[in-house]
Amino acid sequence: MSASAPTRVEVETELGSFTLAVDEANAPISAGNFLAYVDGGHLDGSAVYRIVTMHNQPPETPHKIEVIQWGWRLIDGTEPPFPPIPHEPTSQTGLRHLDGTLSMARRAPGTAGPGFFICRGDQPELDEGGGRNPDRAGFAAFGQLVSGRQTIENLFARATSKEYLDTPIQIVRVARLG
């Protein structure tokens, strides 16, 4: 594999597996953070804990999205194994939130770290300048779904009337391929 080829990572969930191509060339900070969680085994036994659909967002939400959020959960006041990372906006990386994009979950710019999401459908409102967050800084896209679309659909089928799942869906293992 050449140095510019994306790193492939397999995510095994209780509903099946999917494979992601991680773009270290265009989004080195976000990709490096994700791969540190993968390589350290910090995502093994984690969970899909949020599924956002067009139907479970408040009706007044102006910029609705559809995403699966997953990763290391901040529970019981425990700190994640790594500090938050600087924000890599889509204007810097050239990446966009298209169908199957892997991106960093965050509250404010510079708070991303242990949470990730996958877009279902194109989500331009998540790019820098998009209206999903009032700060308009967008989210840091850093990878793409390359196989396992059926697993993503199986996960979406488990959405409830609330974004955050009462019973998270287990992620069994996350590992680099090759």
Plain-language structure description:
This protein is 13% helix and 30% strand. With 178 residues, it is α+β, with helices and mostly antiparallel strands. The chain has one domain (7-176): Cyclophilin-like (Cyclophilin). It has an eight-stranded antiparallel beta barrel. The longest helix is centred in the first third of the chain and has 12 residues, at 28-39. The model has no long low-confidence stretch (mean pLDDT 94).
Short description:
The protein has helices at residues 28-39, 90-93, 149-156, and strands at 7-13, 16-22, 47-52, 67-71, 101-104, 115-119, 141-147, 164-176. By secondary structure, the protein is α+β, with helices and mostly antiparallel strands.
Fold topology:
Elements: E1 7-13, E2 16-22, H1 28-39, E3 47-52, E4 67-71, H2 90-93, E5 101-104, E6 115-119, E7 141-147, H3 149-156, E8 164-176
Antiparallel strand pairs: 1-2, 1-8, 2-7, 3-4, 3-8, 4-6, 5-6, 5-7
